[in-house]
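Hi L.,

You mentioned the student needs an example of a multi-chain input paired with its predicted structure. This one should do, with 932 residues in total across all chains.
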Amino acid sequence: MPSISMTVNGQAVTGEVEGRTLLVEFLRDTLGLTGTHVGCDTSQCGACVIHLDGVSVKSCAVLALNADGAEVLTIEGVADGDDLHPMQEAFREHHGLQCGFCTPGMVLTALALVADNPDPTDAEVRHGLEGNLCRCTGYQNIVHAILDGAKRMRG
Amino acid sequence: MNKVSFGDTVRRAEDHRFLTGKGNYIDDITMPGQAHGVVVRSPYAHARINGFDADAARRAPGVLLVVTGADWAAQGFGPIPTKSAVKENRDGTPIAVPDRPCLAHDRVRYVGEGVAFIVAETRDQARDAAELLDVDYAPMDAVTHPVKALEPGAPQLHDGIADNLCVDWELGDAEATEAAMRAADRIVRLELHNNRVTGAPIEPRGAIASYDAGTDSYLMYQATQNIHANRNTTAEILGIEADKIRHVGPDVGGGFGAKNSVYPEPALVLHAAKTLNRPVKWVNDRAESFLSDTHGRSQYSTVELGVDDDGTFRALRTTTVGELGAYCGTVGAFTPTGGSARTQGGPYGFEAMYYSARAGFTNTAPLDPYRGAGRPEGSFQIERIVEKAARELGIDPVELRRKNLIPKERLPLKTAMGLDVDCGDFPTVFEQALAMTDRVGFQARKAASEAAGKRLGFAIAPYLECTGGMPKEHAVVTFTADGSAHLAVGSQSTGMGHETALPQILAATLGLDMARIGFTQADTDATPLGGGHGGSRGMEMGGNAVLQTAGEIIEKGRAIAAHLFETDVDKIDFEDGSFFEKDTNHIASMTEIIAASFDPERLPDGMEPGSLNTGSTFERGIISIPNGCHAAEVEVDPDTGAIAVTGFWVVDDFGTIINPMLADGQVMGGVGQGLGQALMENAVYDEASGQLVTGSLIDYALPRADDMPPMTLEYYEGAPTKKNPLGVKGAGEAGCCGAPPAIVNAVLDALDGLGVTHIEMPLTPEAVWRAIDAAGS
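Structure written out for the whole complex:
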């Protein structure tokens, strides 16, 4: 089996994968980073969103081999130790999560959205979440959380 | 000290874990040496199985075990039992309950039904081997439409069950209803379909189990919302003692009813773990979730409203055809019968009501409760017929509703469906909701919309529902000498926030620091019984179990305090976290009493160290009656049929609100699912092939962020129920009751004047466009 190397949450990692191994499987099964979730098999739900070389992608739609040499950020790398990132704080403050299963993807999508657009409108946030499904919240508190998270990040 | 009270918005304890990727969902659990199972599922809606050839699958790399339907049948395991509260037809005969095996061996009855379970070293190997299993199917004619299934000549699903009929049931006074109908000035009729949908929690179902040969016992984790009942029923299937299985629910990624049922797979996982003597994990993929999760709703109904010309409601009669799918689900026969009947008529007064339902088998996945389980169907029926009546009578729909709401003075009352409505103030809730909606500005917004070539519509939908689920719940509180506490409950959150709300009740009642209360839920080792989640029972059952347990702890604490103060128990009061003796300066905090409870020197005779630890079972008397009012404003583009929900307002009477932030979350999530059913969600089977054509998230539309309107929520807190000590009424399912009729009626209001009187859910742009087109031609 081919061996791949990448940087995940700032740490160099290597592992062997099959050609068909998805990046999300490598993260979850090989590296044990189970914060990245799998909610579907058609790249619809967004529970598996990570950052690949600074861009938000669905890790169920990337072969692990294609991420060889890449820089990866998962939900496990967002907080500073026990201190939540301002975006994570905003999700907690605004009750932007219930069951928590879609949450890692929501947070990483939100961070990418705010990196592109530091002061988004309500409509821009909703549009930016078109690749992420939540079945619990009705989205309103997620949108409020992202607007507030963006504000916190602007400082 | 983190001091909390009832009614405080306490941020969630579980969030740090979920936000940092440390949640522990079913597929995150790894047991040493675990193998992976996959279910081989039928590609046919209806077929005879002539045989299995598993040789190639058994020889495939990494394969450890292949259990075909024939192998399963040879083991002699029992069928999956059904536990419907409705057990008899209207004539007193038992409802028809076909055997449902965990794996089909001689006949499959829906696409996705399991025919084999394959276990291999890796998940991919198990999936590869599944491709190699050869099942010899002889396809048969299928029927997937619930009405057609009951018609003469329909393909028959079960030998010995005539006409695919499971249950034929009624409630109410047919003669009195007919008399009131005849006495009314007119009868308004509407045929409507409550579309088939599925819960679609974002986390698929799964389980992992290990077997211990030394004790002949199992440990199973499962993504379920009903640990104890599912453990007991799965043990029943396997013919083993329930207490041989420790069943634990880890973090569960949503349920909505779809994780409440007893499914075949856990029994397969337990069997495989024992057979292989190593842990076995199975997790569905999304396609399997659509095929094999229970679906909900699916009722074809005729609703008749007897009404006088002045708008006075006289009688309501609903005749429904429901659907069970291929087998009886866990409580499937209840939903279209008792579950839909009991809240008929909503918050309106009637002289008489009558409900009649038949429900039968189709070649589709079994149906079981989905968020609301009959109450959303009932709410949709009454609110649609009221809206239609308003149009026919030429009365403002707001005025017609206002005129017929049951006034506060008439409560308590028992409805014609036998529902015990104890308290509430429906007119006040209605006016409160109406006041939120800016009706004054509506005409200006409507004019602006029309100027842009669109059409604005408004509707208001009061609802009345009820709680349900298992009528007992257990809580256990244990202390340590340093004053910290641990709470274990048998109710279960699958996202609702019980890890916060239930410790909040304990902390508020005992005056404890919330940060020092640990929490366990969904573990058969932690509580002797538990009802999990279903029927909006989290606060009503779990919350009251915690309150009751706290009350017993206070009584024990009074005895300890009396001993410490050298006085009589009846002189000890408890208030604000402290025990004190009246008219003295004797006072001891709960934390001090906890410490004393571990010190034999400071305990009264008969109390052992640790005896403050308390477990208590709360038993519900009568289910409570959540009620409220939803209102929607929508804008329709008549050229495309596209709908934008531009405003949504809710007032709920949930009795006492423990944590308003969590209550808001329940309401908004329920509105999201209600909007989904109204506008986009639809589980569709192709009638010719029996294939599920909405078998992926590409084909089955879930609401996304930009589909949702801004939601404004308020509560009416003037009527805490006396049916339970907390005064709570259940918050989880209300959103699904109010949102569909509010949205659908608002769309029809937007189309007023075009000749469109009804559109079946979901109101997709195509459906709306076609309705406009048909009305205009």
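You could point out the following to them. Chain A has two domains: 3-76, 86-154. Strands of chain A lie at 3-8, 11-16, 49-52, 55-58, 71-73.

Best wishes,
N.
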